[in-house]
Structure formats: structure tokens, C-alpha cells
């Protein structure tokens, strides 16, 4: 392995811990380099800070990170212009006080250690009664109760059927739209900020604190980029396709990431016979359980495609499981005098087929989003995260290990 300074590191194993969302889309508009003010991606926030008080600030994007920025800076800036293309279903976040929550969770440590790795998403909650088991009144009551909880529970532990049946998805989606309409009030804002063309939960669901109310402030303007897209960045600010220029002092790009693959394809990783991971994943995104890739011996991976990840997983739970599996695998190799480990092509193909069959049964696979790499032109289309559940994935990984790492060729 060679670093950017020319240092060479010789190692038997390489374990990548680069993150699912760590390759930002920074160069997205023509003219960014000519902007007279400050411009940066949310994940590259200036280390020296940035003065926003009284400034004209533009935020491009209203995904999870954009929402965090918007709701945080609205009462500080002189004027905030939000460039909205794809509206998001949002849920109110009601974080408990840290000290009080910490004490509760410490007292539940043993329980949570047992439960979290086995739920569908690695959180403490899981899906309850099925849709068919409840009356319409009971379903509504359950939705109301969970919505009031102020967490991701409505998405990840209300009704599993929202991921599979369009009519159920639509009913729950309309419930969330109703909650958003109550807070937005204004018809134009509702039309701009409430999704209509995809179902609740098929995109990443952001949590927020006062985000919707921001748009009712006199110093905030929401720009509809669906009707009139951004054309370019000019020295004075952002120019729209119709020639309108929004003059700005600071531009914050909440424009997302090359999810799952980007962190590794931005590194020149070469496998057997010099095969390029960037080129291979440019043709077809494949892994063996998100832990290794055929053709890249002794390369172990975390937070990559075809394993539970940021899409449908509590990442702390999932990364702990993946790193423990990798450590156990390397320990097994050393105990048995093995120095090379690589998944067989057949085992990898079988996992890809299982992953696809599981994902393609869901509405997620039918909705364009970064979950499928749809935000990256030319990226192979595949649901990036394993949708079979954290507990199921953990069990499948354990079965492979208990069988002597079947599907992984060692020598």
C-alpha cells in the first residue's frame, strides 16, 4: 500500500473502514471555482469555522444533512435561500436529555447487548403486529403513538408491509404527509416540501427539530429546483435555468455522496493481476456479504454494498458485528496456518443473487435514490444495502464462520 506522500506500508491484511457516506459530491455545478464568497460541502465544513451571522446563505439540498444545517442556521443568517429539488418525508426528533437517557441505557446494558444485534435494523425497537392483524382504528392509533415517540421508529418498526405493498405504503405515506401539512400550513410550501411521487421509507427518512417551521420565517426563501433547475454558480451566487440569479455570500452544498462504493473507488485499489476495484464496480457492484470481494485476496471490508449499512441499519450495531467477524476470521486463519483468504466466485454470486432477490421484493428497489446509486450518473443500479434485516444477516455470517468459513477459499 502506497500513501499520497510516497510511503509504502507492507501488510498481510487490509481492512477498510472508510464509511458508507464519506465520498462527498463536491463538484456538482459549473462555475463553483468562480464564486466570490465561500462554498463548501457539508462534510467538508471549514475547520476554522465560517461566519454566517447576517450573511446571505444558500443551502443546496434538503436531504438528512441539509435539513440539519437549515434548521440550525436559519435564526443566525441574514437571509437563507434553500434550493429544493427532491422533497423528503420527515419525522420530528425528540431527543431526551443526555444525562437522563444515559442512566436509563446504562441500566439496560445487558438487555440491549442481547437485543440490538438481532432486531431488523439494529435498534432497540422492532416491528410489531402486522397490518392485517389490526383494525383501521388500531392502525391509526399505532401510527399516532409511534409518531409521537419522535424517532425513526415509524420508519423502522411500525409496519413491515410499507416496504412491500403499495397500498399500505400509500396509507402510511399519507399519514406522514398529513402531519407535515399541519405544520407547514402554506399551500405553496406543502406542494414544494411534501413528497408525492414516492412512498414513505423508500428514501432515507430524516429526523428534524423545527425544520418545517423554518420556511415560515421572513428571512427564508425556498426555491423550486424541480420547476427551474440550477444552471450554474456565478461569482455573485447561483444562477437558475431561467436566468434568475440568487446573490449569496456563502453556499453550502448538501448534495450527498457517492454512497457505498465511492470511498473505495476513489482509492486505486488493485487486486489479483492488477484488476481495478473502480473498474470492476463500475461494471457491476458485487461483494461477498459486504466482507470481501472476489479477486481481491486479504482485503476485508466494512460499510460497503450488500451488507446492512446506513440505509437500513444502526451503523454502530452493524459495524461492530462486521469488525468482530473479520477479527475472528483472521484469528481462524492464523490458528490454522492460513495466510490468504478470498471469497470464491460461486459463493459471491450466490450472495449477490440472495441479496438481489431480497431487495427486489421491496419498494425500495423501485424508487430512485442514493440507496440504488441513482444520484451518480452511470453507476450500476443495485440496492446498496442488504434488506433482509440485521439479525438475519448476523445469523448468516455466523453460520458461514461456524462451518469453517465456507465460501471463502483459504490457503
Q: What does this entry show, briefly?
A:
With 411 residues, the chain is of the alpha/beta class. 33% of the residues lie in helices and 13% in strands.
Terminal residue distance? 22 Å
Order of helices and strands: EEEHEEHHHHHHEHEEEEEHHEHEHHE
Order of adjacent strands in the largest pleated sheet: 2-11-3-4-7
Number of domains: 2
Residues in β-strands, percent? 5-15%
Explained architecture:
It is a single chain. The model has no long low-confidence stretch (mean pLDDT 96). This protein has two domains: 14-23 and 260-410, FAD/NAD(P)-binding domain (3-Layer(bba) Sandwich); 91-253, no CATH class. The radius of gyration is 23 Å and the shape is globular. It is of the alpha/beta class and 411 residues long. The relative contact order is 0.16. The longest helix is centred in the last third of the chain and has 21 residues, at 315-335. 33% of the residues lie in helices and 13% in strands. The strands form five sheets. A five-stranded parallel sheet has the order 2-11-3-4-7, covered by helices on one side. A three-stranded antiparallel sheet has the order 8-9-10, with no helix packed on it. A two-stranded parallel ribbon has the order 1-12.
Amino acid at each position: 500500500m502506497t500513501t499520497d506522500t510516497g510511503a509504502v506500508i507492507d501488510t498481510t491484511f487490509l481492512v477498510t473502514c472508510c464509511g458508507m457516506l464519506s465520498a462527498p459530491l463536491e463538484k456538482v455545478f459549473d462555475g463553483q471555482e468562480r464564486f466570490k464568497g465561500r462554498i463548501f460541502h457539508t462534510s467538508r465544513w471549514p475547520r476554522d469555522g465560517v461566519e454566517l451571522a447576517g450573511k446571505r446563505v444558500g443551502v443546496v439540498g434538503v436531504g438528512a444533512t441539509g435539513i440539519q444545517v437549515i434548521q440550525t442556521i436559519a435564526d443566525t443568517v441574514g437571509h437563507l435561500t434553500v434550493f429544493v429539488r427532491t422533497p423528503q418525508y420527515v419525522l420530528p426528533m425528540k431527543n431526551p436529555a443526555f444525562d437522563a437517557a444515559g442512566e436509563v441505557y446504562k441500566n439496560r446494558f445487558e438487555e440491549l447487548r442481547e437485543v440490538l444485534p438481532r432486531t431488523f435494523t439494529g435498534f432497540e425497537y422492532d416491528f410489531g403486529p402486522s397490518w392485517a392483524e389490526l383494525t383501521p382504528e388500531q392502525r391509526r392509533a399505532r401510527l399516532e403513538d409511534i409518531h409521537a415517540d419522535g424517532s425513526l421508529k415509524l420508519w423502522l418498526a411500525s409496519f413491515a408491509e410499507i416496504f412491500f405493498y403499495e397500498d399500505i405504503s400509500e396509507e402510511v405515506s399519507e399519514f406522514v404527509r398529513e402531519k407535515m401539512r399541519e405544520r407547514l400550513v402554506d399551500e405553496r410550501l406543502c406542494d414544494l416540501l411534501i413528497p408525492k411521487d414516492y412512498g414513505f421509507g423508500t428514501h432515507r427518512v430524516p429526523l428534524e427539530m423545527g425544520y418545517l417551521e423554518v420556511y415560515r420565517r421572513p428571512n427564508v426563501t425556498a426555491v423550486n429546483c424541480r420547476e427551474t433547475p440550477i444552471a450554474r454558480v456565478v461569482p455573485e451566487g447561483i444562477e437558475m435555468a431561467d436566468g434568475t440569479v440568487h446573490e449569496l455570500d456563502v453556499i453550502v452544498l448538501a448534495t450527498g455522496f457517492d454512497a457505498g462504493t465511492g470511498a473505495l473507488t476513489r482509492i486505486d485499489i488493485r487486486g489479483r493481476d492488477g484488476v481495478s476495484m473502480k473498474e470492476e464496480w463500475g461494471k457491476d457492484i458485487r461483494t461477498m456479504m459486504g466482507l470481501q470481494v472476489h479477486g481481491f485476496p486479504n482485503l476485508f471490508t466494512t460499510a460497503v454494498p450488500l451488507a446492512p449499512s446506513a440505509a437500513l441499519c444502526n451503523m454502530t450495531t452493524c459495524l461492530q458485528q462486521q469488525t468482530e467477524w473479520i477479527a475472528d476470521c483472521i484469528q481462524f486463519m492464523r490458528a490454522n496456518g492460513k495466510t490468504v483468504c478470498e471469497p470464491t466466485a460461486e459463493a459471491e454470486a450466490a450472495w449477490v443473487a440472495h441479496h438481489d432477490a431480497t431487495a427486489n421484493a421491496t419498494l425500495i428497489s423501485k424508487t430512485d435514490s442514493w440507496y440504488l446509486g441513482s444520484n451518480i450518473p452511470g453507476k450500476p443500479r443495485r440496492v446498496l444495502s442488504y434488506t433482509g434485516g440485521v439479525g438475519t444477516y448476523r445469523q448468516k455470517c455466523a453460520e458461514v464462520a461456524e462451518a469453517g468459513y465456507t465460501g471463502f477459499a483459504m490457503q
